[in-house]
Design brief:
Radius of gyration: 23 Å
Low-confidence stretches: none
Number of helices: 16
Number of strands: 12
Shape: globular
Order of helices and strands: HHEEEHEHEHHHEHEEHEEEHEHHHHHH
Bound molecules: nicotinamide-adenine-dinucleotide
Strand order of the largest sheet: 9-8-7-6-10-11-12
Largest sheet: 7 strands, mixed
Mean pLDDT: 97
Length: 467
């Protein structure tokens, strides 16, 4: 829908939650506005020598904490309104999961499939250069990350561009989601999907909610449908399946498929790689459109593609009892009300997909400290555990085999520590939101916005206003 106003949708949810806060309208307006909006245009010389003008944006929503943080999106849907909405969601998301950044977002309006790799590299580098010139990129000012249509490769180009222009000992912290050799952190690629899994698993552990929804306790055996098998969608599906859930439906750009017996994710990925499509895979049934599967029979629906996917037109037909918003803004405000009326549990985007920014925060910390997580303590931990196990052996008849020793005395490496920090964050934040939900008798989305408003508001109140 071309007249879709994403920023207004975000602000609608903000206004509902603001009624439960104690702040006056002036402060609420201060929280809501975007602090800096930069629309950049530049020419690209195409491989065939022709010239094309490229439009990009970077929006810093809130400077209550610095740096600001948020992904960069390459898509034909990118515009100023979308970037403002996504930047605002980043502020609220960071506050919900206690990641000490203001929110930002960037985007370039392109159809990636029209450009060669070398053209994409030139677009990425020129965009980064323009941001650096205006102080919209740097370890202490504004730190991008991957989003829809971008990944580690683009982040690596951004870091290299920054390095060409600045001699900064903390250069690696200017962008996250980088390849590991360039200062990336283990576990970042899968972090958003893994965080979605932790959040959905936590929701399924709530006895009262599961009883209200008429579902069994726990994730095991629950069926789910996923829209989008990109970075977030694929890793979410992989983790949910490992956690015992059954994938019964998938939507991708080319269409949607369903099989109540379950769909093998890895085989489906291989099939799509070979044929370019998910259609015709195994015994799955092909549905009439790529949105049809959103209305299919399942316990959990995971939109993991783009905004405005569950809207007034299809919300009433959604059968899932749990909606896990892996994408940003997949449910419109009206659709949210319709789903709520039907009794569904909506786990909101500004909590559920916060795993990416949480692990980006860990990557930024790693870059600033210039040392890999676990490097200092891993061996020390292992020798301490071995000493404890030796004492146990001495006071009992039990002798541990070397294999057992290896497992029991293992020290934490970077991946373990990142995963532990992510799990802790997602569990704590869910419980915090649940408490707010109970206290005010509100839904989880309103609780997430209220939590964010409270945290950002305190900062603004304490800081005062310059000059
Ligand atoms: P991605 O580009 O890796 O994957 C998106 C996938 O969605 C692609 O496979 C694409 O083909 C598919 N898709 C696009 N339109 C579709 C449609 N109409 N129906 C079905 N499938 C469709 O992007 P991503 O990084 O996985 O991001 C997905 C969503 O998650 C976005 O809303 C993004 O803002 C959000 N998000 C991403 C991250 C991250 O770390 N990458 C973090 C937080 C939130």
């Amino acid at each position: 829908m071309s007249d879709y106003k994403f920023f207004a949708q975000v602000n609608k949810a903000f206004d509902i939650a603001a009624k439960y806060s104690e702040y006056d309208q002036g402060l609420l307006d201060q929280i809501k506005i975007c602090n800096n909006i930069y629309h950049v245009t530049f020419p690209l010389e195409r491989d065939d020598g022709s010239i094309e003008v490229i439009h990009g944006w970077r929006v810093e929503h809130s400077h209550h904490k610095l740096p600001t943080k948020g992904g960069i999106r390459f898509s034909t849907t990118v515009n100023e309104d979308e970037t403002m909405a996504l930047a605002a969601l980043m502020t609220y998301k960071c506050a919900v999961v206690d990641v000490p950044f203001g929110g930002a977002k960037g985007g370039i309006k392109i159809d990636k499939s029209r450009f060669s790799d070398s053209e994409i590299e030139r677009i990425t580098r020129r965009y980064a250069y323009e941001l650096i010139k205006k102080d919209f990129l740097g370890p202490g000012s504004d730190v991008p990350a991957p989003d829809y249509g971008t990944g580690a490769r683009e982040m690596g180009w951004i870091l290299d561009t920054y390095r060409q222009l600045k001699s900064d000992i903390n250069a690696e912290a200017c962008v996250t989601g980088k390849p590991i050799p360039q200062g990336g952190v283990r576990g970042r690629t899968e972090a958003t999907g893994r965080g979605v899994y932790f959040g959905v698993r936590e929701a399924c552990k709530n006895k009262e909610d599961m009883e209200d929804l008429g579902l069994e306790l726990g994730l095991e055996g629950k069926t789910f449908v996923i829209q989008g098998l990109g970075n977030v969608g694929y890793h979410t599906a992989q983790n949910l399946i490992k956690g015992g859930a059954i994938m019964v439906g998938v939507a991708e750009i080319e269409g949607s498929i369903y099989d109540s017996e379950g769909i093998d994710l890895e085989r489906l990925m291989e099939y799509r790689q070979d044929t370019g499509s998910i259609l015709g895979f195994g015994d799955t049934k092909e549905l009439e459109s790529n949105t049809a599967v959103l209305e299919a029979e399942c316990d959990i629906l995971i939109p993991a593609a783009l905004e405005n996917q569950i809207n007034e037109e299809n919300a009433a037909n959604v059968k899932a009892k749990i909606i896990g918003e892996a994408a940003n803004g997949p449910t419109t405000a009206k659709a949210h009300d319709i789903l709520k009326e039907k009794g569904a549990l909506i786990i909101p985007d500004n909590y559920l997909n916060a795993g990416g920014v949480t692990v980006s925060y860990f990557e930024w910390l790693k870059n600033l400290s210039h040392v890999r997580f676990g490097r200092m303590e891993k061996r020390f931990e292992e020798s301490s555990y071995r000493k404890i196990l030796n004492v146990i052996e001495n006071i009992s008849d039990r002798k541990f085999s070397e294999a057992e020793m290896g497992v029991l005395a293992q020290g934490a490496d970077e991946r373990d520590l990142v995963d532990s920090g992510l799990e802790e964050t997602m569990i704590n934040s869910y419980n915090e939101l649940n408490e707010l939900r109970k206290t005010h008798d509100i839904d989880l989305r309103t609780a997430a916005f209220l939590s964010a408003i409270n945290k950002v508001g305190i900062m603004y109140n304490q800081m005062g206003i310059f000059p």
